[in-house]
Amino acid sequence: MSKHTPDLDAVSAGTLADYAAVAAAFEAGTRDHDVSQNVDALLRHLPGDRPLDILDFGCGPGRDLRTFAARGHRPVGLDGVAEFVAMARASGAGEVWQQDFLHLDLPPAAFDGVFANASLFHVPGAVLPRVLGQLHATLRPGGALFASNPRGANQEGWARGRYGVWHDWPQWQALLEAAGFEALEHYYRPAGLPREQQPWLASVWRRP
User: Fold this and answer.
1) DSSP characters over 150-163
2) Which residues on adjacent β-strands are paired with residue 97?
3) For residues 97-118, b (16+ Cβ closer than 10 Å) or e, as one string?
4) Among 18, 40, 7, 32, which residue's Cα sits nearest to residue 127?
5) Following CA atoms 118, 124, 127, 133 in sequence, which dihedral angle do they give, to the nearest 10 degrees?
6) The predicted structure's pLDDT at residue 109
7) Distance from chain centroid for Cα 42
8) Cα(119)–Cα(113) distance, rounded to whole angstroms?
9) What pLDDT, on a 0 to 100 scale, did the predictor assign at position 1?
10) What pairs with residue 96 in β-bridges?
């Protein structure tokens, strides 16, 4: 990981602007992505006998908000891209907050689960411990966090207009444990392929 702290305002502005510029194409291109494996991974570690309050962190256009609502839960979406927030709100699947990942304002102990699918890797390493601490604090005790990120060798920087960090499992585990989480499970995606063809690292964590 880079030892230098990037210009955080530039990281946010550049990444959000890149997503905004392709918002309609992104929605169309991801609408039918099957992430049921990830949804199931979060839900199997949470109570199954009642509706759950779930924060969809980086909800994008709202695909997974609709999934959680259809399963009887109470999702709240969060995204920094105004165009995505408008799309997600239009889905009618739940409340949607427009917040920059680097300037979060989350209520304490408000959620049973946090679903961070392909979102946390955009948080620079220098501030990721703070952001993970905020997600830990917005979970209720016993709540669970799901995260899926493109894996790598802990490199960090700009790629095709967006800032990212490509964590390996040992680094990701150390970061989450330092934030107070306990590991529940981790796996690589897409399922059923050789490891070199599985670019995504998924993991589930408990707030004790």
Assistant:
1) E--SSEEEEETTEE
2) 78
3) beebbbebebeeeebbbbbbbb
4) 7
5) 10
6) 98
7) 12
8) 15
9) 42
10) 77
3-class secondary structure, 203: strand
Q: Which residues contact 95 (CB under 8 A, 6 or more apart)?
A: 76, 77
Can you state the percent helix, strand and coil of the chain, rounding each to 5? 35, 30, 35
Give residue-wise pLDDT tens across range 86-132. Answer: 999 999 999 999 999 999 999 999 999 999 999 999 999 999 999 99
Residues in the chain: 208
Extents of the domains making up the chain: 8-207
% of the chain surpassing 70 pLDDT = 98
C-beta neighbour count of 147 within 10 angstroms: 27
pLDDT tens readout for residues 125-149:
999 999 999 999 999 999 999 999 9
The span from the CA of 198 to the CA of 78, in Å, is 27
Measure the CA–CA gap between 111 and 68, rounded to whole angstroms. 13
- Are 151 and 200 in contact by the 8 Å Cβ rule? The answer is yes
Query: So what's the pLDDT on residue 4?
Result: 65
Of residues 158, 157, 76, the one with CA closest to residue 114: 76
Residues 6+ away with beta carbon under 8 Å from 29: none
Pairing of strands 162-166, 155-159: antiparallel
Specify the fold of 8-207: Rossmann fold (3.40.50)
